[in-house]
Amino acid sequence: MAVTPDEDEVSLALLLLQQYPVSFEQEEEEEEESVSEDELEVKISNQTYANKGKKRKVAEVDNSKETLLRMIDWEANRPKNPPRRIFVRDPDAMGACSELMWKQLTGSDVKENQCRLMLGKERVKKMMVDVLGKTEKLGIHGQTVSVYGPKGEIHEMVFKMWKKDTPVLMSVGWKNFVKKYKLEKHVDFLTIWMFRHKETRKICFAIDSTRFPVKGMLSPKILNAAFKNP
């Protein structure tokens, strides 16, 4: 039976589809947009490290030996409690205090139009238990807290839940904090404590900052090798 030109084109198209499947990149992009920028930056850095050459975006990831040694030293020698200089203007402020948590700043933490520091949910729960003996629901409106900076300045911020499951410190207070200490993504690392103020009994935070000459987000290899709780 003779094959018509139209039938010949359809057969060729089906053959090509079998050999070269269509990639639905648009759907991947839309799915990524539903993830917060902070989570996306970490996600991309991890995937770039694990799948070099396969990721459409190229993330900045530091996996150098020099950075690994710096992080090991920092983890071993940083103070377990807030330094006294943080309380120079309010020396008797600190009551019950949590264990420290740390964070490498991402792009979304320091963007001027976002004004928020994103914190880990499980770590914040642990902090609350350390300070209050229990966890408390923050809600979307949250509460105003005093945040003590590296040089003793006290900044008012809002401690709340963002998108239902991500605790943040935000408002103009965080924006001013970033400007005051000239914080930048990747190179600045924060050590954060939650404590209860001795007089007011309110939740407060103490934040210290350390700068390292890193090239990007820490690689999974460095995180796992240098930190007890990466």
From TrEMBL:
Domain of life: Eukaryota
InterPro entries named among the record's database cross-references: At2g31720-like, B3_DNA-bd
Molecular functions (GO terms): DNA binding
Signal peptide from the UniProt entry: none
Coiled-coil region: none
Keywords for this protein: DNA-binding
Record's protein name: DNA-binding pseudobarrel domain superfamily
Organism of this sequence: Arabidopsis suecica (Swedish thale-cress)
